[in-house]
## 1
Amino acid sequence: MADPMNKKRILLKLTGEIFLAKDGTSTPENVLTIIHQIKELSDSFQFGIVIGGGNFFRGSQHGVKMGIRSPVGHQIGMLATMMNGLMLKDLFEQHGLSAELLCAMPSPEIGKPISQQTINEALHGGRILIFTGGTGNPFFTTDTNAVLRALQIGAHEIWKGTSVDGVYTTDPRINTNAQLLKTVTLTQALEQKLGVMDLTAYAMAEQYKQKIRVFNIFGKDALINAAQDQHFGTLIG
């Protein structure tokens, strides 16, 4: 088995929608596909994962609809990521992959508190790190959390798995003439306010020179392609 410290580290940002079928019902199908790909890459790559909670609750959407105040809506959203993290951990372990669930919101029955020490221990142990509970504070998105955790694990790149093939000139779901951009600088992403990530995430990534690759996580062998083809998706950096 390869030394974990010699593997390329990737922070994988996953949408909570990986737990949903096209009709909106719950399914493990997408998650199992991701797990099999991570298992195939495990000799050369070590993953930290930031998982969203949108399949359960989005503060900016469901919270507003319910009339819940923003700080509370964000807390509920962070709790949703913990539920998804727990499901991920269980499915990883059922398929022979060792995973550590880390929680920014203290919950010892669910996972360990996030600290640099617990992160380093998990990295040295060769485990997949699953980061949940956001940053532990409201008003920060999972995108910003992904950049934060990427810096903590010393990630080579952030891979943002989304539902489109990369960054486009305009929203391809609205404009059929939108063009896929293969490379974008972080300065461009900030100035043009490219919506694939939030501005706080871009600013932090620019400050620390953290590269971000954006691609469609639901495409066939998406993680394998990201690992083998440096031109896969869009590189922001």
## 2
Amino acid sequence: TGGACAIALGALPSVTFAGNGVALSADARSMLASVAARLRNNPDCRIVVTGYCASSKSEQQRSWDRVNAVINYMVEKEGISSDRLFFNYGQEGGDCNTVDLRAATSDEQGQTTVPAPHPNLRRSK
């Protein structure tokens, strides 16, 4: 069951973004380093990276950018295999400025790469 990984990984943090930004704060990078260490210690576990808000094209793209920022950090800086990180953006029911991490259940299927919804959208300042 997915319970085993949820227990092994423990409570996973949420990453908070400031304003309309997509940059990871020092605190966020530190939290993600801790998550990466737990993933390295539990090689069979995967996590779902979830971003919220999709009521407009800009929100959809920002949600994607933020999930992408978290996943890219985990892959490029922490060496976590991208197939262990499920890409989940534009979901309902969460804080628009937050990306949540949770352990995937053992039978859960997810997409590890998702094309940007609106790649040509210019970010507003």
## 3
Amino acid sequence: MVLVCQKDYIEDLVDIVINNEEESTRSVQTKLLALIQSWAFEFSYNRDLRGIAEVYMKLKDSGQDFPQPSEDDLKE
């Protein structure tokens, strides 16, 4: 999980999916955004995993639309 939540790694994945406008990748894009959001909520407290929260906030600030968070994402 540490590798997946590293800022550089997740930014590369986001770049690949976000910059691909093919209709066939829309479901992959939506799933990746949902995972980023979920991981950001879950791991933002962990210093080693904060990169995911940084990527999430960067995407939010740039106007990226995320799917509605699940109930599990909103639990503390």
